From TrEMBL:
Domain of life: Bacteria
Subcellular location, principal: membrane
Family: Belongs to the ABC transporter superfamily.
Coiled coil regions, renumbered to chain: none
Protein name: ABC transporter ATP-binding protein
InterPro entries: AAA+_ATPase, ABC_Ni/Peptide_Import, ABC_transporter-like_ATP-bd, ABC_transporter-like_CS, Oligopep_ABC_C, P-loop_NTPase
Matches recorded under PANTHER family: ATPASE AAA-TYPE CORE DOMAIN-CONTAINING PROTEIN, OLIGOPEPTIDE TRANSPORT ATP-BINDING PROTEIN APPD
Amino acid sequence: PEALVTVQDLKVQIGTDDGVVRAVDGVTFDVPRGRTLCLVGESGSGKSITGRALMNLLPPSGRIAGGRITYSGRSGEAIDIGALDPRGKQIRSLRGKEISLISQEPMAALSPVHTIGQQIVPVVRRHLGLSKREAEARAVEMLGRVGIPRPAERLGNYPFEFSGGMRQRVCIALALSCQPRLLIADEPTTALDVTTQANIIDLLQELQREDGLSILFITHDLGVVAEIADDVAVMYLGKIVERGTVDEIFADPRHPYTQALLKSVPRLGAGRNTRLAAIRGMVPSPFDRPTGCDFHPRCDLAIKGLCESEDPGTTMLGPRRDVRCVLQRNGGAGHA
Ligand code: SF4
Ligand code: MG
C-alpha cells in the first residue's frame, strides 16, 4: 500500500526540570492511504508525542531530535514535516486542512466562549476558501454526518450545551470539516460510554470508506484496536517493540510485551472497552531506563546474562512486520 506519511527513526526529546527525556526513541512506521494504524501502549509509552510530532505540534519543551517524517502532499510532493518551522505558514496550512487531530478531551479542543458555528465556519472558510453561507452549509452537513440531530439549529449552541458524546462528535466534525487526508485520533473514545464509543468508531470507519481517509489511532484499548486497526504498532518506553497487520498481531504476537497485553483479551471481537492486562511491575521511569532490553525487568522470558545487557535491536520479519526481541533474531526460530 502507498504511504501517506512515512516515519523513519524518529526521535523526540522533551526537556523537564529533571533533565531531558527521550520520549520517542527511534520509531519507524508508515500510514498507508485509506488505512488505519493503531499505536498501542500504556500511558507514558510515547504514543501521544509520536502523534503530535506528525503535525510538528510538540509541547514547547519538546523537539524532534532525529529521524524523518515524510508526508506525501496532494500533488505527490514529499514534505519533510520535521524540517518545517513549527510556527511557520507551511505547517499551519497543513494542520487542520491536510492533517487533523482529535484528542481525548473534547473540551480542550473547543473554545467555551464561542458557539459551535463560530468555531467551525471560519476554519472551513479559511481552508476551503468558501463564502460564509457555503461554509455554514458545510458545517451543518458535517454536524449532520457525525450524527448530531437538527444540526442547523445547533450551530448557535455553545460546547457546554452538548453532552460529552455529542461534544466529541462536534470535535470530529470540526476535525473533518476541511476534508483532511490524515486524521490523528488520540484516545478519542476513552472518556465516553461504550455505546457512544461504538458509534464513533463506526462513524470513523464510514468516513474512511467514503473519503479514503488515513487514520493514526492512538489507544491503550485492545478491544478498540480489534475493531478499527488495519495495522498495529506496539510502543513501550518510546520504542516500537512490534509492528504488523492487525491479524498478525492478534494471531501471532512475537514480542513478550504484546503477548502479555493480549492475555487480557479473551478472544478477538470479545467486545469494546477491553482494557490492557495488568502486567507485573511498572513502566520504568524514562529517567531510569533499564539497561539492555527496556522490557527485561517485566519480561517472563528474559534470558539471564543477555537481556539485561544487550539491546535486542530490530528484527525484520517482513517488509512491514518487525519486532525487538532477542528471541526473534533468527526470524522467530526461537519462537516464544
Ligand atoms: Fe524479553 Fe529478552 Fe525479548 Fe526483551 S529481549 S522482550 S527481555 S526475551
Ligand atoms: Mg497519551
